[in-house]
From TrEMBL:
<dbReference type="InterPro" id="IPR051049">
    <property type="entry name" value="Dienelactone_hydrolase-like"/>
</dbReference>
<protein>
    <submittedName>
        <fullName>Dienelactone hydrolase family protein</fullName>
        <ecNumber>3.1.-.-</ecNumber>
    </submittedName>
</protein>
<dbReference type="GO" id="GO:0016787">
    <property type="term" value="F:hydrolase activity"/>
</dbReference>
<feature type="domain" description="Dienelactone hydrolase">
    <location>
        <begin position="22"/>
        <end position="234"/>
    </location>
</feature>
<dbReference type="InterPro" id="IPR002925">
    <property type="entry name" value="Dienelactn_hydro"/>
</dbReference>
<dbReference type="Pfam" id="PF01738">
    <property type="entry name" value="DLH"/>
</dbReference>
<keyword id="KW-0378">Hydrolase</keyword>
<dbReference type="InterPro" id="IPR029058">
    <property type="entry name" value="AB_hydrolase_fold"/>
</dbReference>
Length: 238
């Protein structure tokens, strides 16, 4: 084990055919409920690490696994004009079922750690939002928070198997997931009466990402405030 540039501890999680790299953040008190944070298509980027650190500061034990660990050539330059195209190209090489299995293994590892007291949940952004939904269907998290889950339109048949209380965020100006599709997602995932489904006027896809091409400051602020409130209610701190 070692430390990465964001102050997390780099760990290995035993998965099929090898050790999956992951990043672990502990809260100030050293213990707390657990959260598995699942990446956007850009990997465990500085933004994802910042959000992980934010969650740890609240009191959660956070693990962000490197879902692309089985692939070569996954380094991305966030300043590159073709960032989205290159990230999308990496995603085409990823096997979805293997990614679900790896993420589920990471979640069970998280839940079994001595530092995790209380429950454990899933938080995912974009690609990770859909992945977290799929993982919630094959594991038993206490909570699920999904930001504009890009794979959700193709996963709605799993909705009856997602029993965790969940929070979903979508922007009304998302050109990747149109409002008709968003409403179809809403109808499928809101079976649990405590599930929350929130829309943000004028926000596009990936509105929480601080890169200028994506960021919607007001939607980001509102959604993060609601996320932290939701987690404290349904995954209470010690």
């Amino acid at each position: 084990m070692g430390s990465d540039a964001a102050g997390a501890t780099v760990i290995g999680i035993e998965a099929e055919s090898g050790s999956m790299p992951a990043h672990l953040w502990l809260p100030p008190g050293g213990t707390g409920p657990g959260l598995l944070l699942l990446q956007e298509i850009f990997g465990v980027s500085p933004y994802i690490r910042e959000r992980a650190a934010d969650l740890a500061a609240l009191g959660y034990v956070v693990i962000a696994p490197e879902i692309y660990w089985r692939l070569d050539d996954t380094e991305l330059d966030e300043s590159a004009a073709d960032l989205v195209d290159k990230a999308a190209g990496i995603l085409t090489r990823l096997d979805w079922d293997t990614a679900v299995t790896d993420a589920a293994v990471a979640f069970e590892h998280l839940r079994g750690r001595l530092e995790v007291t209380g429950g454990a949940g899933l938080v995912g952004f974009c690609f990770g939002g859909g992945l977290a939904f799929n993982v919630a269907a094959v594991t038993s998290p206490d909570v699920l928070v999904s930001y504009y889950g890009s794979a959700l339109p193709n996963l709605l048949e799993l909705a009856p198997r997602v029993t965790a209380v969940s929070l979903h965020h979508f922007g009304t100006a998302d050109t990747y997931i149109d409002l008709e599709t968003v409403e179809r997602i809403r109808a499928a995932v809101t079976g649990n009466p405590e599930t929350e489904f929130l829309l943000y006027e004028g926000a596009g896809h990936a509105f929480d990402n601080p890169l200028p091409m994506f960021h919607h400051p007001e939607a980001s602020r509102q959604a993060w405030a609601r996320t932290t409130e939701f987690l404290k209610k349904h995954l209470p701190l010690d």
